[in-house]
Structure to design on (457 residues):
């Protein structure tokens, strides 16, 4: 199966392409050398189309679009931008486009984008023109949901999920703000954070203000949500509204802090996390310098360590929220990219790992494209 | 018509050219004319609230622009500057 791993980095985009058996990988690129690339995403409805969230250190944010699987790119004619501030309003400007999500299968050409500061944007023409989603950005509660409590890379709107059964049903996450749900194509939103810890807040039982790092929705079982949060990992089976902390079943000396969470595309009970050090001042590095992936085959009720092939000691990298993914091969491949510019792959569902790319810039995202 | 000096990060919009012409009696009008000729370039320098982005500076001759409403005289030279430190 022809496939590509798109690697978004702090200094450009790269592509890794495997041979037929995924034994050797060839690196192509860089594209947009020196640009900050947060996300490169394929449109599953029209696989030749890709979108890329980009900016540079000097220049404002934008989106690039490809119609030929990433050979050529063009810039959006109207990148995501907030509307002009009204009298007395605090003006908002998109500082970075952080997240891209293709729309529902029934809405070809529709894409969603999440930004810092937290904003939701929609395109109806494959990413050429973007409009603010007023139902979220101008929601009366938005100034409280997205209060500007800046995380190190800014207040981020990410993990936009479109229910594959219903184009009107959307989820998104804000760091810091929490998880939010819309059932009317984004016209109105409500928090969905019950059961999620917010240990850093004066009131840990708040309705919003949480710090989800990554939210996923299973494609074949869309009522199954997983969330890797600043305060643990969680599962939610809708229509329930209370998240269950599945990370409590992780070994105590490992904990359940991390950025990414990845589900098996054909098995909603199989999920992978990559724990990081959330102790004291939050190093956010591999625990003890010994990186490991953990897998649960039963929806988070128990976990097993997967570290064969990974560095045994003195490896202090971080894996960011968009930097871990699965492919769709019969023998599922898993991939993650590190802040030290390495790409690691497993072709046996995490059983063993090997480095397939190194010496890249700091990796922000790893996505799989067919 | 005014001369506008374009720094390298913005030359994707000017086909690699470092010196372009634009007309206007204010900085805002100059930027509008630049956008008309080089679509997309303005938003990379000026945000949606019409503020100069944090790592962009605009000079009229030797004087740094504070507001897009500042007047531009016919022979003034406009300098677009990218200002960033770090690795």
């Amino acid at each position: 199966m022809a496939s590509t791993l798109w690697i978004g980095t702090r200094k450009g985009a790269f592509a890794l392409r495997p041979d037929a058996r995924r034994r050797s990988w060839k690196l192509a690129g860089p594209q947009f050398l020196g640009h900050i690339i947060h996300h490169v995403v394929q449109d599953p409805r029209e696989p030749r189309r890709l979108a890329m969230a980009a900016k540079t250190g000097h220049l404002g944010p934008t989106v690039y679009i490809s119609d030929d699987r990433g050979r050529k790119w063009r810039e959006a004619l109207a990148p995501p931008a907030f509307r002009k501030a009204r009298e007395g309003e605090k003006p908002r400007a998109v500082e970075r486009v952080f997240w891209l999500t293709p729309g529902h299968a029934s809405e070809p050409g529709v894409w969603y984008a999440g930004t810092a500061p937290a904003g939701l944007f929609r395109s109806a023409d494959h990413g050429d023109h973007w409009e603010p989603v007023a139902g979220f950005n101008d929601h009366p509660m938005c100034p409280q949901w997205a209060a500007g409590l800046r995380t190190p890379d800014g207040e981020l709107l990410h993990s936009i999920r479109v229910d594959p059964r219903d184009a009107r049903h959307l989820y998104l996450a804000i760091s810091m703000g929490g998880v939010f749900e819309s059932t009317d194509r984004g016209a109105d939103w409500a928090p969905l954070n019950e059961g999620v810890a917010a240990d850093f807040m004066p009131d840990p039982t708040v309705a919003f203000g949480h710090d989800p790092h990554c939210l996923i929705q299973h494609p074949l079982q869309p009522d199954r949500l997983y969330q890797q949060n600043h305060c643990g990992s969680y599962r939610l089976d809708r229509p329930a509204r209370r998240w269950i902390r599945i990370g409590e079943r992780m070994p105590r000396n490992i904990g359940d802090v991390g950025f990414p969470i990845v589900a098996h595309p054909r098995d909603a009970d199989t999920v992978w996390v990559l724990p990081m050090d959330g102790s004291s001042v939050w190093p956010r590095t591999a625990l003890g310098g010994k990186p490991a992936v953990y897998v649960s085959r039963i929806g988070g009720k128990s976990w097993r360590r997967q570290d064969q092939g990974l560095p045994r000691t003195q490896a202090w990298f971080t894996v960011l929220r968009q930097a871990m993914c699965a492919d769709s091969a019969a023998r599922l491949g898993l991939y993650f990219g590190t802040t030290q510019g390495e790409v690691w792959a497993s072709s046996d569902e995490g059983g063993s790992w090997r480095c397939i790319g190194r010496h890249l810039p700091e990796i922000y995202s790893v996505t799989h494209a067919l | 018509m005014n001369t506008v000096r374009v720094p390298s990060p913005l030359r994707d919009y000017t086909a690699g050219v470092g010196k372009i012409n634009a007309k206007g009696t204010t900085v805002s009008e100059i930027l509008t004319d630049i956008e008309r000729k080089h679509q997309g370039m303005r938003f990379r320098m000026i945000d949606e609230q019409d503020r100069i982005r944090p790592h962009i500076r605009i000079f009229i001759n030797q004087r740094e622009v504070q507001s897009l409403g500042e007047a531009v005289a016919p022979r003034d030279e406009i300098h677009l500057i990218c200002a960033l430190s770090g690795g």
The first strand of chain A starts at residue 4 and ends at 9. The two ends of chain A are 8 Å apart (CA to CA).
